[in-house]
Please model this.
Amino acid sequence: MGARFPIPRPTETAALAAVRPRPVPPAEALYADLATTRRRDDREGFTLLGCLILRAIAGKAGERS
Model:
């Protein structure tokens, strides 16, 4: 069944503006977790932790300003 009127959807800019930045742990604390993901051959975890370490080091790596 179709809607009788269009449902308003936020734009990407509005959605990103509504999100509060999450605190990032210090990079030194993340290196042990990175080594664990490598030992367990967890590629997804390794990638996610690598990006999180970049955010901790560079501030806003991969995010739009």
Notes: The helical segments are 12-18, 27-39, 43-58. The chain has three helices and no strands.
